[in-house]
Amino acid sequence: MKEIPIDSIPFINTELEIQQIAMYPVITEDEKLAVKEKLNEFRERILNGDKFSTLAVLYSEDPGSAKKGGELGLVSRSELVPEFAAVAFNIKEGEVSRIVETEFGYHILQLIEKKGELVNVRHILLSPKASFEQMLNLEKKLDSIAYDIRNGTITFEAAADKYSEDSQSKYNGGLMTNPYTGTSKFETRQIDPTSYYTIKDLDIGEVSKTFQTRDEKGKIVFKFMKVKSKSKPHKANLKDDYQRIQDDALANKKQNAVDSWVVKKLETTYIHIDESYNNCKFKNKNWVKLQ
Which of 3, 25, 206, 242 could be stapled to 202 by a disulfide with Cβ–Cβ 3.0 to 4.6 Å? Predict the structure, then answer.
């Protein structure tokens, strides 16, 4: 078997395995009601002549669309959460919907246009907020759990199983999964800034302080973390990086199979390349055939 040239061996950056225990503030019915009343007020203002887009810019809590007047652009049903899609595809152009509840919070929608299986809507998102007292009590609870872990009263893994509200890591001893790779190892650039700032100076096995951040859906969450392992930058080797090397080899094998299939299909398949792409360099030169 041929050896891999030294200069072809990939360099592995520092990687960490991180455990966490996360809990969410309890949202009361009064807090939910306050948000609904505010959205109903916005809806009445729009029906009485105020511009939906102006209110979205001023009040919507969706950072991606608020600055665009709440507009999402043309999207398919599969790109929307089911509750949102059900309303977006069933209101008339210009119509302002009733309140819609999703995992992100509460919305009102206005249909801009519908093209086949695509819709473009504006929306205003508001999410109920827990009171300061509730968040303070939650922080104290997590501090108490972390104290017990540090003193050996309970293991981190048992505490994660008992207390953590993060469904993805709860039953795995709090061990987080990297969404970019599907493994438990994170490069520092793949860790959200708030979490990284909290753990960057921790020793292996050390439990962090409790801190507040937001999850991938924008919800406030309190958590503390532990660094389970931390590797130094190094050249890839079979002892430390077998799984990564195996995964990369499999991915490369799959890509080669796809490339071979494409080359074979190009012999019998009509391909139209728009003139605007005539000067582009394609990975497979057979995409552009001489006429």
Answer: 206
pLDDT digits 0-9 by tens, 170-197: 999 999 999 888 888 898 889 999 999 9
Residues 35-58 pLDDT 10s = 999 999 999 999 999 999 999 999
Q: Does residue 285 carry a pLDDT above 70?
A: no
Residue 108 bridge partners (DSSP) = 124
- Phi then psi for 92, rounded to 5 degrees? -85, 160
Q: Give me the pLDDT at residue 4, please.
A: 55
CB-based contacts of 98-105 (< 8 A; 24+ apart in sequence)? 98/43, 99/36, 99/39, 99/40, 99/43, 103/217, 104/62, 104/217, 104/218, 105/35, 105/61
Identify the helix (H) or strand (E) that includes residue 227: strand 220-231
CATH value of 29-126 in 3.10.50.40, 1.10.1660.10, 3.90.550.10, 1.20.120.530: 3.10.50.40
Average pLDDT in the 150-165 region?
Answer: 97
Which numeric CATH code is attached to 8-26+136-233? 3.10.50.40
Q: How far is CA 147 from the centre of its chain?
A: 30
Question: If you ran DSSP here, which 8-state letter would residue 67 be given?
Answer: T
Other beta carbons within 10 Å of 290? 3
- Based on its alpha-carbon atoms, the radius of gyration of the chain, rounded to whole angstroms, reads 25
Tokens of 149: 């872990």
pLDDT at residue 67 greater than cutoff 60: yes
